[in-house]
C-alpha cells in the first residue's frame, strides 16, 4: 500500500542515484508500520487516466492518538533524513493500493477525457 510517494517519473540513472541515497533508511521505512499502525476506513475504487486504485480515508485518531497523518509525517521524516527530496505526484495525502496502471491512455480516454464506459 502506498503511504508516501517519494518520487515518480525519473530516468534509470536518476533512480539509481536516488536509491543509493535512500538505501540506508529503507529497512527503517519498510519496518516502521510494525510498531506504528494507523486505521483506514471507507474503501473506494477510484481511477484516472493513469491507474485504478482502491483508496481509503484515514480514520480518526486511534486510542493512542496516532493517526495516518502521523504515519505519513514520520515516513516523510525518515525519507528526508537521507537527504532525498520528497517530490510526490499528488499534493493531497492518499492511502491507496494500485490495482492497475495503464501503459497509455488510449484504452480509457475519449476526446481527451476519462470515458467511464471504457473503465467500467
How are the strands of the biggest sheet laid out side by side? 1-2-3
Element string (H = helix, E = strand): HHEEHEEEH
Rg: 17 Å
Strands, count: 5
Mean model confidence by pLDDT: 83
Spatial separation of the terminal alpha carbons: 23 Å
Description:
By secondary structure, the chain is of the alpha+beta class. About 30% of the residues lie in helices and about 20% in strands. The chain contains four helices and five strands, in the order ααββαβββα. The strands form two sheets. Strands 1-2-3 form a three-stranded antiparallel beta sheet, with no helix packed on it. The longest helix is centred in the middle third of the chain and has 13 residues, at about 70-80.
List the helices and strands and how they pair.
Blueprint: H1 12-22, H2 26-31, E1 40-47, E2 51-58, H3 68-80, E3 95-101, E4 109-110, E5 113-114, H4 116-119
Antiparallel strand pairs: 1-2, 2-3, 4-5
Task: Please supply descriptive tags for the structure shown above.
120 residues; alpha+beta; 3-stranded antiparallel beta sheet; two-stranded antiparallel sheet; 5 strands; 22% strand; flat
Entry summary:
The protein has helices spanning 12-22, 26-31, 68-80, 116-119, and strands at 40-47, 51-58, 95-101, 109-110, 113-114. By secondary structure, it is an alpha+beta fold.
